[in-house]
């Protein structure tokens, strides 16, 4: 029955998406101002975080456990010229939240991308180690309102994703959204289709994610120590970008679904299932860009979810970044070296 309702919700979301798209027109595309022959030096500052929650109708009256990571601000610096691009990012020493309340999170992010004609490929890897259960003092007598959270230093989350985009409008180019080596000079609209392949999950090193006071001895799912899924799916979407008096704003919105091969582990035992899940695709960007320099705000949102009977796991990977740079006219010596 659960699979039936998941399938029904998935088909409804796809139908609504296609129905809306059928009424959206598309204006004549405009060309992109390209600065690949300019040397671009840029810097950025931002953060990436990945909180998650586990929901279950526990008999004690609690229905949701929230897990928070303690992230750092990342400062990056890089350059781009023709086909060559390089960036290095360094975390600040201090974390955003108190180490006493939220522990210390070790975080690793890797991203690679490639754009060709109507296609855009994005590869990403995210690993986080170190979480805290928020407000665990409500059921754990060893904690208090002054130290309300329970630190889980070995709790980890991992996400590997390979995404391929197809854009119906051949004039739409993903790199121009961030304004680094190109920008738009007017309005562009396009339908999009994202093929998504993901491997993700959480692990607590053979220790249950659910605190002992909330565990049920006759229900093994309340003692899970690991959740993992392999999924593949399609997300149809819509893209809009416009630039007015050097101010550019854009967004990618999509709704679709995935097929999952998922499993959970407890007490050294693993169980696997097949299922369906909805997925959203949200990218927002905006800023100021002229021939010589640019300043942009970039956001990215990615949701993950699993369901096993009454237990539900949801995790949101999102990031916010402010990037700015200067475009130098074509350097002759560097041009000879690259060419």
Fold topology:
Blueprint lengths: L1 H20 L10 E3 L4 E11 L2 E4 L8 E5 L3 E10 L2 E12 L3 H4 L3 E11 L2 E15 L16 E18 L14 E3 L3 E16 L22 E19 L2 E20 L2 E21 L3 E16 L2 E18 L3 H7 L1
Overall description:
The protein is mainly β and 339 residues long. It has helices spanning 2-21, 99-102, 332-338, and strands at 32-34, 39-49, 52-55, 64-68, 72-81, 84-95, 106-116, 119-133, 150-167, 182-184, 188-203, 226-244, 247-266, 269-289, 293-308, 311-328. It is built from 3 helices and 16 strands. The strands form 2 sheets. The chain has a 10-stranded antiparallel beta barrel. The protein has a two-stranded antiparallel ribbon with strand order 1-10.
Largest sheet: 10 strands, antiparallel, barrel
Radius of gyration: 23 Å
What is the architecture at the second tier of CATH? Beta Barrel
CATH class designation: Mainly Beta
Distance between the termini: 61 Å
Q: What spatial form do the alpha-carbon principal axes imply?
A: globular
Give the helix tally.
3
Number of domains: 1
Number of strands: 16
Describe this structure in a few short sentences.
This protein is 9% helix and 60% strand.
List its salient traits.
339 residues; mainly beta; Lipocalin; two-stranded antiparallel ribbon; 10-stranded antiparallel beta barrel; disordered N terminus
């Amino acid at each position: 029955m659960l699979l039936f309702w998941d399938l029904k919700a998935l088909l409804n979301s796809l139908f609504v998406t296609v129905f809306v798209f059928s009424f959206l027109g598309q204006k004549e595309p405009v060309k992109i101002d390209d600065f690949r022959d300019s040397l671009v030096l840029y810097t950025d500052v931002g953060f990436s975080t990945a909180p998650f929650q586990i929901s279950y109708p526990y008999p004690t009256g609690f229905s949701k456990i929230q897990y928070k990571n303690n992230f750092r601000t990342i400062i990056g610096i890089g350059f781009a010229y023709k086909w060559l691009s390089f960036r290095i990012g360094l975390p600040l020493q201090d974390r955003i939240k108190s180490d006493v309340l939220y522990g210390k999170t070790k975080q690793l992010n890797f991203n690679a991308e490639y754009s060709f004609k109507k296609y855009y490929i994005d590869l990403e890897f995210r690993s986080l180690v170190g979480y805290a259960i928020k407000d665990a003092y409500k059921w754990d007598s060893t904690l208090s309102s002054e130290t309300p959270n329970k630190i889980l230093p070995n709790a980890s989350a991992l996400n590997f994703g390979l995404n391929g985009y197809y854009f119906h409008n051949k004039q739409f180019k993903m790199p121009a959204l961030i304004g680094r080596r190109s920008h738009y000079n007017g309005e562009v609209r396009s339908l999009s289709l994202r093929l998504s392949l993901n491997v993700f999950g959480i692990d607590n090193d053979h220790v249950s994610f659910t605190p002992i006071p909330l565990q049920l001895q006759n229900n093994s799912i309340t003692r899970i120590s690991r959740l993992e899924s392999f999924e593949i799916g399609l997300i149809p979407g819509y893209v809009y970008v416009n630039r007015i008096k050097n101010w550019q704003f854009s967004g990618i919105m999509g709704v679709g679904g995935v097929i999952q091969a998922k499993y959970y582990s407890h007490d050294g035992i693993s169980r696997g299932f097949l299922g369906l899940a909805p997925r959203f695709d949200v990218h927002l960007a905006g800023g100021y860009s002229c021939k010589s320099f640019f300043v942009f705000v970039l956001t990215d949102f990615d949701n993950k979810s699993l369901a096993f009977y009454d237990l539900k796991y949801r995790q949101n990977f999102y990031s916010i970044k402010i990037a700015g740079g200067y475009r130098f006219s074509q350097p002759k010596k560097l041009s000879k070296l690259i060419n």
